[in-house]
What we know:
The chain is of the alpha+beta class. Helix content is 42%, strand content 18%. The longest helix has 32 residues, at 467-498. The N and C termini lie far apart (83 Å).
Amino acid sequence: MSFVYSRSALWNIFSSINGIPRLESTTWNNLKLAGIARLATRRGCRAGASKKRPIPTIQGDGRYSGDNSQFQFRHLSFQNDCYSPFMQISSNLFDRDFHNNMLINLLTSSATQAHNSSTPDREIPRHSSGSISTCSFGLINCRSVCNKTLVVKDLVVDKDIDILGITETWLHGNDLDNPVLAELVPSGYSFGHSARHDSRGGGVGLMFKKSLNVKFPVAESYNSFEMVNAEIKLAGKSINLYVIYRPPPSSENRVSCESFLDEFGTLLENSVIDPRPLLITGDFNFHVDNKSDVDANNFSDLLESFNLCQHVMESTHCAGHTLDLIISRNSENILNSLNVVDVPISDHRLIICSLDLKKPPFEKRRIQYRQLKSVNYDNFRKDIMNSPLGPEVQHAPVDSSMNPFEVASHLVDLYDNVLLSLIDSYAPVKTKTIILRPRAAWYSNGIAECKKRRRRLERKWRRTRLLCDRVNYEKQCAECRDLIYKTKKDYFNTVISENIHDQRVLFQTVNHLLSGGIKDTEYPTCSDDKTLAEVFINFFTSKINGILSDLQRSGTSDTLEVSPQCKSTFLNFDIVTSDEICKLIKSSVKSCSLDPVPSFLFKKCSDILVPFLTSMVNHCLTNGIMPDALKIARITPILKKSGADCEQLKNFRPVSNLKFISKLMEKCVAVQLNQYLNDNCLLEEFQSAYKIAHSTETALLKIQSDILMSLDNGKAVVLVFLDMSAAFDTVNHKILLSRLSESFGIKGMALKWFNSYLTNRKQFVAINNAVSSVWDQNVGVPQGSVLGPILYVLYTSPVADIIKSYGLSYHFYADDSQLYIAFSHNSHQQLLDAKECIERCVADIKRWMQANDLKLNQDKTEIMLIHSKFKAYIDPPIIQIGDDMIHVSSTATNLGFKFDKYLCCHDQIKQVCKSSFYFIRNIAKIRNYLTDSATESVVHAFITSKLDYCNSLYYGLPKYLLKRLQCIQNSAARLVVQASKFDHVTPVLIKLHWLPVRFRIMFKILLMVYKCLHDMAPPYLANVIKPRKTSRSLRSTTMEYLEEQRSRLVTYGDRSFSVAGPKLWNNLPLQIRKSSSIQSFKKELKSHLFKNFLSFGLK
């Protein structure tokens, strides 16, 4: 027979036994161990039949002997699922002696042995109030976390779950999951998952605290179920955990129960020999509660054959079945408690238990901070006014025994010490240890109160089990969820609207929504930050030393200098005025940890400090001095690409930071240096980096226009992309100073200042609060500086002279170099001549670089053969550079724009579409948190910027390619106004006042033409835009037409800027062409193009 006794029923039977008026200590301990009595009192628990709450029960099976009135039990287990206070038994009630004898046998015999018996139905004892806190584990089937992120996140935080296994995540396994995971995973937690790739649904995941040592070994894949395997370690203990989801058999997955049992048996064979404790959890979709279910019995037999025990005895599904299971070995007591909790997430219930692991703490971090918000700004300004940095400092006496260098150092030290002492008095540095708990910037007191009410209603419902209490609890859950959603939406909309013009804040806000915010940089594993900083500084310096050593072994003393001597001179810097300093400060103020005060505090008192800064800058410039304190760089290693292996040092790049006043002085020098170089035409014409009115688009427009005209004339083009290794870091200071003097006429006190600027530079690596030792920077231009890129351009200027000597066309953008040559498509000899010319030119460039301590990266050097698709195929040549053979590529990325062998932009548009639709999908996931105006700002930042990047190169492309870009804009427009996909897009574009893609391309080209005509464009573009000249006076003479260049092919020549620009310009109304300012031109041009759009539509 089988029986089920409630514990209160047992107490009733016990209380009616004659001769045992009170419990002895041994009997009482057995009673507590069996779970019958409460722990806090010796009086038994009672529950009325009308309470309808779960009552602890004992169930088992055995044999009753009527001869001696003894009950011999074989299995006992303890549950929490009986709703009646009375004994339930499957046969007729026995006499009183049976109850007496059975109960006495239970209480006074081996209750402990019954409790610890190795059976499939054993109790998991609960913790006493004084037990050590253990790791909590949860398991739930979410049926898609994508629309339940806030609920699941709230569940983890409220119940303080350390590890949560999730089945049916419905994630995709790609970047589309980033917005979901950003909202799902609380701070201080990580998430690993395995997604279903071949169809919708499925997927399993594991959320865990970062303080746990969790690794995901490479696991074998199975066809009949999905799985995540994790190795969890903490405090010397480890658990081998599996989270499994077995989809129910269907005609779609074609998975049978037999195939699952076969594959699951294989998994158990591999896992059972693992010496670590084993825990298998998940949704198995077996009705293990139904003893007549053949498949469930076969599954249970499989577990029993491997000496495994299934612990869940309650219903885990709303239909009353037990589908979600927790399995472990019979010989291992790794579970300390188990409860099944009904939560409003899905049709499955939450299983929560404790593991035999110490509860993992939240991650702790020791930080240093200042309470800058408590600073009284008025008093702070007064103290600066009365300090040596005040406006009267220029009259302050300076020790006459000091030389100019010592005076400059004294002024810098005075600036640092005074401001640092003041900030220390107002907001001293404090150190504290913080616990990185789950947090949110939008969390409010209202949400906290709402969640308190929800917990009270939940406890009431757990206690009474009344339907009305459950309804009230669910209503409060919905109210809490709606309040969180509304508060989060209001917060992010406010941030976006307040920082609509601050791209940095805008990107950070959207990144927080899309990918969980700015995450801490992951560094290689190391004992402490100090040691890691030393490892990084050694790696960065050894990398540069390695390049220089290679160059010295293969270098040559021939510098191949072909630049003529400069006839103009630049001897001294002009005196800088206070107004110029104010203008430079307003343009940009960025501080780092080297500065005594943060940037926002500096802005509040900058007007007081301007006289001192002006005096200090002028003293340094007039005496040719750069103080040593301003030549120290703080380096922070960051990953080159997100997702790269953080254990590999080569995947990190050094980011250098300098003091603000160092960059301020560099800006003063850069302004005068650029003015001198421009006035004397000393800058390379075809260098588009770091020059006013130049950009990557102007450079690409020039290169594309030249190549298109060559193709239009029946020629082909060989295009070479040169790349250098650590170009900025290996510049030789001696050669640079010599080139500044001889090639650019920088002499006297100006050259002395550059010499002081380059010498005795130092750098160190900082990681968190730890810094490395200081290393000398004897080569290279300073990274993160204002003058560094300009000096590099001047240093490499002889490369242009080498290319000119071979008659090749070329273009530079910083250290990116392109050289190209056209040849007749039908002449094989011209192809060979072009190949030989390029090989000799690149060989000379390589020798020059070796002589000037620069290294050509031949692995990243690419060559393209661009020809007309209407011409016969050309066998591409193999270019030899030194001992390396470089094969011709069909595509190459040039300044962020993909070139292909036909110059049809097919690959570029494909890449733009892929990237744009990715962001559209992600923005759609956070659309509910944004208003229309905020969404439009985000779309312009992430979508429109991609459509507009170098879109002047798209002019003249086939309609089918432009239609792909138009589809992106249509989707983005519908996303902003939340229009249906069935709504016509034209009214949507009109409502937003967006120009379609085709008209945006025309707008960009016409704007470039206007700039060319008004000296706001590079000379290499302005030279191809010429006013129309006539031999006699005509009526069209006053119409300001441009000379239209002839072309042969619509596919190539008509797309060239030199052809398309004048044609579009001549079709504009006269009043637009005569616009007096660029602002009025943009406004009138957009109105004109919008009228054309309304007239002709998207055709």
